[in-house]
Amino acid sequence: MEALNQTPEGVKPGDTAPDFNLKNVDGKMVSFSSNKNAKGYIIVFTANTCPYSEMYEDRIIALHQKYTALGYSVIAIQPNNPIVSPGDSYSKMKERANDKEFPFPYLIDTDSQETTAAYGATNTPQVYIVNKEGSVFKVVYIGAIDNNSRNPEAATKRYVENAVDALLNGQSVETNSTKAIGCTIK
Fold this sequence. Notes:
The protein is of the alpha+beta class.
């Protein structure tokens, strides 16, 4: 397996993914057990105030639409501390999710940013694909969505799609880690 710039802290490909119980913009709590039929999840750390996250929002929606019926739904987590980044407050998250009609959960990490730290997320957007193996979820990919943040049509490598497609075909994920580009988590 090819591994590029693995996250120095938090989880690595092959590790058990830490579960969480975080508040969605609809007020409900979401965890891995929220969807009993999940084969895995595409977890995206993203933020309202990050221009890179904004450039990827339509692609994140498309990933959810393409893979949710196949067992791999998107879960978006807003990791920024709203005191440091007021545009990422829970009320602003609700507005953004409503404006963009997010079809997936958009969760706020706790004030202590425990989930962000447990995963080792450093940027927005940053993706963690987890695959259900028995009763646990294992990390199979960490990094970028694709290799072109500005123009989706110009992307020549679609890391998340390639990884989920491999899982759906019973294959191992060829590239299990890439460098996530974007805004630093605050």
